[in-house]
Specification:
The protein has five helices and 29 strands. The chain is of the alpha/beta class. Strand 1 and strand 2 form a beta hairpin.
Length: about 450
């Protein structure tokens, strides 16, 4: 019995020693977190130190320091000090789960020590003046779910090893100076929901592996130098709601299979070099609210299936080589507020039923080959602010019904073959008077070459 008692006393003593050592290690770790941040604060300019006046050795870092949150063990897990003018060095805070230094004046490169923060789930450095490459070490952050390095001066290529960040939901690298191709490895980020690489200097083709990202809801690559076709694989991303590939050098035809993206609300492909017809299948995108295919080399007629898109509020096809009539089915788009079909080769008359589009504020049909009369039904478009019909082959009288357009600020009918007197009722369009001095109309507004009386 005595031997057992001695053994128990020995075990209890050993446990207390181990527990005390662990407690001391934990206390030291907590103290080290605070020391690291105070050392960092000390390296800053006076203005930045003033903004972090609550960071003091006399105060509890978890409860009294601005922008700091701790876990239950008292280790710093979140730093959120946006708009504080902070500069750098953070790699010792290995317990961090969320780091937000966005909207400051951070300069120089992202420190390689960032790769030590392997507990991070959120990393935000957006809206700073960071430069240099994205450090390869960032790919050690395998717990990362949200990475936003946008609106900086980052250069070089996107590292291929970014494919290791397999838990990412959000990847924002837009508004930098990143160059080279989009790495094929980006297709490994199968949990991604939001991907924005826009406004960089990215080149080459969009990788086919992009089709693996079947959880994406928004996908922005606009304002780069991407070339080649829109990959067919893109149509595997059936969750996609917002697709913007505008302002690149994309070529070939719009894939017919784009009709599979039935959840799209926004489709922007403008300012590319796409050619061929607009696919009939575009009419399957019945959730679309904004469709812009302008400034390409699209040909043939506007497909009748466009009339299925009855949720559209804006439709832009301007600066293409579209031909044939404006399809009657376009008048089914009763939610439409902005219609621009200008600078094409459209023919025939403006459909009388265009007067059904009662929500229209902007109607631009200029620089086409539209003929016959301006339909009097345009007078039903009482929300219209801009009616731009110049440079067509319209003839006949200007309809008196246009006087109903009390909100109209910009009316252009010049370079047509209109005749007859100007309706006196136009003096009632008071907004137009303010913008165009309509009470003193002169030949530049309508071109007197064809006006009489």
């Amino acid at each position: 019995m005595i031997a057992i008692a001695i053994l128990l006393v020995h075990l209890l003593s050993t446990f207390q020693i181990i527990n005390a050592a662990a407690s001391e290690m934990h206390t030291n770790a907590v103290r080290d977190d605070g020391k690291a941040l105070l050392a960092w604060k000390a390296s800053l300019d006076n203005n930045s130190r003033l903004k972090l006046s609550s960071w003091s050795a006399l105060e509890n870092s978890c409860t009294n320091w601005t922008g700091i949150q701790c876990n239950k063990a008292g280790r710093i897990k979140v730093i959120n000090i946006t708009s504080s003018g902070i500069k750098e060095e953070i790699g010792k805070l290995t317990s961090l789960q969320h780091l937000d230094l966005s909207e400051n004046h951070l300069t120089n490169q992202i420190p390689r020590s960032i790769g030590n923060l392997d507990n991070l789930t959120g990393l935000h450095f957006f809206k700073n003046s960071l430069s240099g490459p994205i450090p390869e070490e960032i790919v050690n952050l395998i717990s990362l779910e949200d990475l936003d390095l946008s609106t900086n001066n980052l250069t070089n290529q996107i590292p291929q090893s970014i494919g290791n960040l397999s838990n990412l939901n959000i990847l924002f690298l837009y508004e930098n100076s990143l160059s080279g191709p989009i790495p094929e490895e980006i297709g490994k980020l199968t949990f991604l929901e939001h991907l924005d690489l826009s406004e960089n200097h990215l080149t080459n083709q969009i990788p086919q592996s992009i089709g693996n990202l079947d959880n994406l809801t928004s996908f922005h690559f606009f304002k780069n130098f991407l070339s080649g076709p829109i990959p067919e694989e893109i149509v595997n991303i059936i969750s996609l709601e917002d697709l913007d590939l505008s302002t690149n050098n994309l070529t070939n035809q719009i894939p017919q299979s784009i009709g599979n993206l039935s959840n799209l609300n926004i489709l922007f492909l403008y300012k590319n070099s796409l050619f061929g017809p607009i696919p009939e299948e575009i009419g399957k995108l019945t959730s679309l609210e904004h469709l812009d295919l302008s400034e390409n080399h699209l040909t043939n007629q506007i497909p009748r299936s466009i009339g299925n898109l009855d949720n559209l509020t804006s439709l832009h096809f301007f600066k293409n080589s579209l031909s044939g009539p404006i399809p009657e089915e376009i008048v089914n788009l009763i939610s439409l507020e902005d219609l621009d079909l200008s600078t094409n080769n459209l023919t025939n008359q403006i459909p009388f039923s265009i007067g059904n589009l009662r929500k229209l504020s902007f109607l631009h049909l200029y620089q086409n080959n539209l003929t016959r009369h301006i339909p009097s039904s345009i007078g039903n478009l009482t929300n219209l602010r801009e009616l731009i019909l110049q440079q067509n082959k319209l003839y006949g009288a200007i309809p008196r019904e246009l006087e109903k357009l009390k909100l109209m600020a910009d009316l252009r009918l010049f370079m047509n073959q209109l005749s007859g007197p100007l309706p006196m009722e136009f003096n009632n369009i008071t907004h137009l008077q303010k913008v165009r001095n309509f009470s003193k109309l002169s030949c530049w507004s309508f071109t007197t070459k064809y006006l009489q009386g």
